[in-house]
Amino acid sequence: MTISAGSIPVTTRPRAGDPVLEVRGLSASYGLGPDAVRAVVDVDLTLRRGEILGIAGESGSGKSTLAYAITRLLRPPGVITAGEVVFRPADRPGGGMDLLSAGPAELRAIRWSEIAVVFQSAMHALNPVLTVERQLLDVLAAHRRSMSRQARQARVREMVEMVGISPSRLKSYPHELSGGMRQRVMIAMGLILEPQIVLMDEPTTALDVVTQRQILQQILELRERLGFSVVFITHDLSLLIEIADTIAIMYAGRLVERAPSAFLFHAPRHPYTRGLLASFPSLHGDREKLVGIPGSPVDLRHVPSGCAFRTRCPHEMPRCATDRPPLALPVGDPPSADREVACWLHDGRQPPPPSLARPAPAARPEYATAGTSTIRDTRAEQERS
Amino acid sequence: MTSTTSGPGAEPVLRTTSLAKHYTLRGRGRRRTVRAVDDLDLALVPGTVTAVVGESGSGKSTVAKMLVRLVRPSSGRITLDGRDAGRMNLRAYRKDVQMVFQDPFASLNSVHTIGYHLARPLLNFGRARRGADVAGKVRDLLQRVKLDPQFADKLPHELSGGQRQRAAIARALASEPRVLLADEPISMLDVSIRLGILNLLGELRDTDGLAILYVTHDIASARYFADRTVVMYAGKVVESGTALEVTDQPAHPYTQLLISAAPDPQRIEIVDVSRASSGAASAPTDGCRFRDRCPFAMDVCRQQPPDVAVTPSHTAACWLRVDESQRPASGREAA
């Protein structure tokens, strides 16, 4: 079953909107008992087919732990304490399987073949004493036992070409490749079994901007051709806004806001999201003094009561210290807005500050122009109608 | 001395002339010279921030290391107030030129308190005498970087990344330097606290008249924070000008590429950078070093382009800026 990538017509790709991965109430901790550090708390997420779902957060926000928990790769002392992760394969409509209750054999069948991970540090994720070709062949040898040797070799060549590496580099060892090429090899490894879902944990963080841009282009092109879904984890929100369809923002282990990316960029509703967006100096316009977010990122060992962000928040209210805001549709937004925010400013008891309010309808059609992705544009259409 | 005021237009405090650093690689009979930095003329002016922007392999960190005299230049001169730095006593030189490193997790000693880190340079550079004097000066330093005085008793691991970098800046300030070299001071920090560090450095520039060299890969932060921006590629300066000129009207194709590749949520169209394949590591060492990646490369690019003035304060080293009739005849004309 060596399906060449180019042979899959884009039109048969399942329409975006159909969920392929559903995370419900997922919690993960490091350690047990009262001293446990709760790195992921009660996270709900839906990944749709063909979608790029971005997860942004600072160090200690739990974003990487979330990726490891979803794939059941969390190692002790990390433990998943609650929740379910339902994978809905394209070939089994209706039937989903909970990865958290799956046995080793079931997991083995799904990992890499259906759900692949591209790890952060390509230097450390590749084996330094094996050639790139050998490492790619090993994947096929383990997961595609029925493939002939020649077919495997052909597939490896095809795959490295697809990520923009000349097959002449296949005999190279990882240290002979540049950082960008190693990261491309990692992406080739992730995609070689044609998974339905690819989790990428800071895949471009250590790379130069030009290389980063090339790799992002490559990911977008491959998604068009192969139709996989991506969970893209990064601290760089400015990058996500360009490539993701939907963005979820994490703070202190919880989701604090989720929205289509153009909406998140033009009208953030959570003070933390707004602060993050204001932390990236712009390449255009007047030079204005920016302040970032006061204070330090939260220490998961000492999370404030109520809303974890309140100690850095310019809009703190007495209620924020006692009650934790739930992640919910902001009061006043139509359900079609497809966004959630965990902030008491949006519970309808008081008008939210203008900077975090829902923009007037006249201003909203502008959102659509910000997006380049078709999924995003369709959703913007829906919002307007 | 000269009447050094601060701000743009003042007399430079630290200057480099034709500064170069070449490394020779030996192995298996092959000898190769890596020209990490070539022909660098740089002037750091009191009360201004000069950003050096480039990718990995551009030589930007080597520049900072030569300026703080951790790396000996292969050729060229560094002058501090007109005096040849190579002939100056190292301690006297470093009293005026201090450095802040990229990684605040590695640049502080984990077994010593923050107070110890600050007291050492105060004593070494004779800025405080042993005794009650030191504790007071340590407190002052912490205050200048907006850390609570109680941080003096803490160990590095008790601090967040941003707090550590503030402590590292306080340590650099202990000798009361006039030049501060900051090598990627925010790239290891969380996004939300980066601006706090840049704003702090900006205040030190304004209140103390520090000449700051800001080495970075992030051209947007240079636009935000720097007065002048110098763009380096494979060891050579390709463009320099005021920070706004360089980012808003980039004149060199490499600067244009850097800007088009930077994350930018306001971008409407997707830019195609697929042509610009290889990195600085394999760049040619003669002529224009960017020509292999340049979409406008011509035969004449085999020769070193001159620095052409775009505006009085803005220059770019590119043959495209030279009138065709003024370009030297290249050996082989393109068909």
Automatic annotation (TrEMBL), chain A:
<dbReference type="InterPro" id="IPR017871">
    <property type="entry name" value="ABC_transporter-like_CS"/>
</dbReference>
<keyword id="KW-0067">ATP-binding</keyword>
<dbReference type="InterPro" id="IPR003439">
    <property type="entry name" value="ABC_transporter-like_ATP-bd"/>
</dbReference>
<dbReference type="Pfam" id="PF08352">
    <property type="entry name" value="oligo_HPY"/>
</dbReference>
<dbReference type="GO" id="GO:0005524">
    <property type="term" value="F:ATP binding"/>
</dbReference>
<dbReference type="Pfam" id="PF00005">
    <property type="entry name" value="ABC_tran"/>
</dbReference>
<keyword id="KW-0813">Transport</keyword>
<feature type="domain" description="ABC transporter">
    <location>
        <begin position="21"/>
        <end position="277"/>
    </location>
</feature>
<comment type="similarity">
    <text>Belongs to the ABC transporter superfamily.</text>
</comment>
<feature type="compositionally biased region" description="Low complexity">
    <location>
        <begin position="357"/>
        <end position="370"/>
    </location>
</feature>
<dbReference type="GO" id="GO:0015833">
    <property type="term" value="P:peptide transport"/>
</dbReference>
<protein>
    <submittedName>
        <fullName>Dipeptide/oligopeptide/nickel ABC transporter ATP-binding protein</fullName>
    </submittedName>
</protein>
<feature type="region of interest" description="Disordered">
    <location>
        <begin position="345"/>
        <end position="385"/>
    </location>
</feature>
<dbReference type="InterPro" id="IPR027417">
    <property type="entry name" value="P-loop_NTPase"/>
</dbReference>
<keyword id="KW-0547">Nucleotide-binding</keyword>
<dbReference type="InterPro" id="IPR003593">
    <property type="entry name" value="AAA+_ATPase"/>
</dbReference>
<feature type="compositionally biased region" description="Basic and acidic residues">
    <location>
        <begin position="376"/>
        <end position="385"/>
    </location>
</feature>
<dbReference type="GO" id="GO:0016887">
    <property type="term" value="F:ATP hydrolysis activity"/>
</dbReference>
<dbReference type="InterPro" id="IPR013563">
    <property type="entry name" value="Oligopep_ABC_C"/>
</dbReference>
UniProtKB/TrEMBL annotation, chain B:
<dbReference type="Pfam" id="PF08352">
    <property type="entry name" value="oligo_HPY"/>
</dbReference>
<dbReference type="InterPro" id="IPR017871">
    <property type="entry name" value="ABC_transporter-like_CS"/>
</dbReference>
<dbReference type="GO" id="GO:0005524">
    <property type="term" value="F:ATP binding"/>
</dbReference>
<keyword id="KW-0813">Transport</keyword>
<dbReference type="GO" id="GO:0015833">
    <property type="term" value="P:peptide transport"/>
</dbReference>
<dbReference type="GO" id="GO:0016887">
    <property type="term" value="F:ATP hydrolysis activity"/>
</dbReference>
<dbReference type="InterPro" id="IPR013563">
    <property type="entry name" value="Oligopep_ABC_C"/>
</dbReference>
<keyword id="KW-0067">ATP-binding</keyword>
<dbReference type="InterPro" id="IPR027417">
    <property type="entry name" value="P-loop_NTPase"/>
</dbReference>
<feature type="domain" description="ABC transporter">
    <location>
        <begin position="14"/>
        <end position="259"/>
    </location>
</feature>
<dbReference type="Pfam" id="PF00005">
    <property type="entry name" value="ABC_tran"/>
</dbReference>
<dbReference type="InterPro" id="IPR050319">
    <property type="entry name" value="ABC_transp_ATP-bind"/>
</dbReference>
<dbReference type="InterPro" id="IPR003593">
    <property type="entry name" value="AAA+_ATPase"/>
</dbReference>
<dbReference type="GO" id="GO:0055085">
    <property type="term" value="P:transmembrane transport"/>
</dbReference>
<dbReference type="InterPro" id="IPR003439">
    <property type="entry name" value="ABC_transporter-like_ATP-bd"/>
</dbReference>
<protein>
    <submittedName>
        <fullName>Dipeptide/oligopeptide/nickel ABC transporter ATP-binding protein</fullName>
    </submittedName>
</protein>
<keyword id="KW-0547">Nucleotide-binding</keyword>
